[in-house]
Amino acid sequence: MTGKTLYDKLWEQHLVRESEDGTALIYIDLQLLHEVTSAQAFAGLRDAARLPRRKAANLAVADHNVPTTDRSAGISDPIARLQVETLDRNCEEFGITEFAMSDPRQGIVHVVGPEQGATQPGMTIVCGDSHTATHGALGALAFGIGTSEVEHVLATQCLVARKMKNMRINLNGALPDGIFSKDMILAVIGLIGTSGGTGYTIEFAGSAVREASMEARMTLCNMAIEAGARAGLVGVDEATVTYLEGRPYSPKGDHIERARDFWLQMVTDLDAEFDKEYDLDVSVLRPQVTWGTSPEMVASVDDEIPNPADAPDQTRERDWARALEYMDLSPGTRINTITLDKVFIGACTNGRIEDLRAAAKVASGRKVAQNIKQALVVPGSGLVKVQAEAEGLDRIFTEAGFEWREPGCSMCLAMNADQLEPGERCAATSNRNFEGRQGYGGRTHLVSPSMAAAAAIAGRFVDPHQL
Amino acid sequence: MEKFVNYSSVVIPIDRSNVDTDALIPKQFLKSVEKSGFGDNLFDEWRYLDQGEPGQDCSDRPLNTDFVLNKKAYRGGRILLARDNFGCGSSREHAVWALRDFGIRTVIAGSYADIFFNNCFKNGVLPISLPGADIDALFAQDAESGPCSMDIDLERQTATAESGQVYRFEIDGFKKQCLLEGLDDIALTLQHEGDIATYEQRRMNDVPWLFEDLAS
């Protein structure tokens, strides 16, 4: 008998029941909640006179709609304010722990979970947000769900699901200096496409993953959804265990040793087989930049914008042409000649302390270019912000001409006041470059924090080494 | 949930792959705490020439007359046709609420993103997957002969074109039953309370630290 993948193990350990046709009920260990996708779920619960089955298995934080400027005056947009207040009220009514907007621990839900130690290996974690895949970096099965499913989990602590297929992506080789996990995941999406992982859980493996920090692994798993996979995974190792030591929600006392032994089993067996497997040599990677309106439309900083006529099929030829029209770019243009209007550093993809350090390293002693109207740095959480300030990163950014903001999702999806104006072009460390994603008519290029900082300094895309 | 009943309607073709949920319903409309009222803002950025705001009366907004939803011949259409990876991106169920509120009860596409696909079934919307060649044929038919109607028959798992061509589709038996009967799946899951309680007890023994109060 062949061995099991990490995903197989996580699936089997959470199976409550399974019908003959493969429809299963799986148990959910933790649900993360935020303001945008929970109100209707709580309302549904109330309408049906149901209560959360295990209120302590939920953790809430407002992140999408919160302002990143001075919060003492509250939220000025009345509709956004109502949504955040609705979350506050629902958590109070149903007895769910919430890090409110004024709480120093508040931040993007996918930064907060691992940071608090609430995300642990071997768990199932859901949230009404597709970037829940992030938590898979700790060997947890974590995926995004819709609001009806949020209600279902609140009421039953379970989800109706079918088992996904297994995919492994081996990232091998030594990552060159100045190349980051963001470049790896963008290259992976370029390789397998935005629907390449649909129906699969993707495990990231290989020497570059073993060498990667926990935060770098989170960036990888975060964008598994951009490759079509609801969940990304990294097997547990000593780095995972060390990361969790002493975090507020980590196991305490007698549980520590037992949890550690349990966690270290959260790996794929050596003889396990995958339905699909890819290999990528990351030692030759160059900084990645997306040029279109889908994350799979990606190239290296020194490449040219491709010609739709060279697309592999007719559908993609049309998609590329449409994307270039929206992005106001022409085939053959060198990516390192593209000038920018705004820069956004932050998001659940790249809003953690290591991301801010990498950006600050590039920004240090330099000035934001004249043509950049705004360069935002938005820490992923209040605790990331405190840490960055303790290290003096905020001063490096502000002296260079960046704006230093309060934590939240900010210009990743632009639900709050942080938005692109029509036609503006932005280098962003977030995860989606869809039409209008960062603001109506806005144009987004996805890059690593180091590349975003370099773009702010040069006013155009440039390999940070060539600054 | 409203039961899915067989119906016939003109097919609205959106000839794109990777139609994302940001396109289906832009972020500003996600500030609503309601579960309905999204129909006027379905495909807001493609449908109107201005930037939409929540709560706005859409009846006097400038329309993008090139966009298929605004073409007279497709008015009242309740079937949407698209290419691969439909509904990718954000998990926002608002995307399905917008389709449903607009009147779309069936999407026909080459493939779907997983989260969107699940969300459809929670709201009485049927996502049909057909092979690429069939999708090509349906787009070609529209391009050549103009708007076409189809009959959707969920019991028989068929979508029948005016030409008489029958497209059979696959669907998970449980999901089909939920659509046909308009079942509330929370109530269905709660019928398994015994299994859940048994599992929970075992889980508590295996990983007791996950049952300590997170807030403590």
Task: Outline the secondary-structure elements.
The complex is a heterodimer of chains A (467) and B (216).
Chain A: H1 6-13, E1 15-18, E2 24-27, E3 30-33, H2 39-47, E4 58-61, H3 78-94, E5 97-99, H4 109-116, E6 124-127, E7 141-144, H5 147-156, E8 158-161, E9 165-172, H6 181-192, E10 200-205, H7 207-211, H8 214-222, E11 231-233, H9 238-244, H10 255-263, E12 276-281, E13 288-290, E14 298-300, H11 314-327, E15 342-345, H12 347-350, H13 353-363, E16 374-377, H14 382-390, H15 393-400, E17 403-404, E18 425-428, E19 443-446, H16 449-458
Parallel strand pairs in A: 3-4, 3-6, 4-5, 6-7, 9-10, 9-12, 10-11, 15-16, 15-18, 16-17, 18-19
Antiparallel strand pairs in A: 1-2, 2-8, 13-14
Chain B: E1 7-13, H1 21-24, H2 44-47, E2 79-81, H3 94-102, E3 106-109, H4 114-121, E4 126-129, H5 132-145, E5 149-153, E6 158-161, E7 166-168, H6 173-181, H7 185-190, H8 193-206
Parallel strand pairs in B: 1-2, 2-3, 3-4
Antiparallel strand pairs in B: 1-5, 5-6, 6-7
Walk me through what this model shows:
Chain A contains 16 helices and 19 strands. Chain A has helices spanning 6-13, 39-47, 78-94, 109-116, 147-156, 181-192, 207-211, 214-222, 238-244, 255-263, 314-327, 347-350, 353-363, 382-390, 393-400, 449-458; strands spanning 15-18, 24-27, 30-33, 58-61, 97-99, 124-127, 141-144, 158-161, 165-172, 200-205, 231-233, 276-281, 288-290, 298-300, 342-345, 374-377, 403-404, 425-428, 443-446. In chain A, α3 (78-94) links the parallel β4 (58-61) and β5. The model of chain A has no long low-confidence stretch (mean pLDDT 97). With 216 residues, chain B is an alpha/beta fold. Chain B has two domains: 7-182, Alpha-Beta Barrel (Aconitase, domain 4); 184-216, no CATH class. Chain B contains eight helices and seven strands. Chain B has helices at 21-24, 44-47, 94-102, 114-121, 132-145, 173-181, 185-190, 193-206; strands at residues 7-13, 79-81, 106-109, 126-129, 149-153, 158-161, 166-168. The model of chain B has no long low-confidence stretch (mean pLDDT 96).
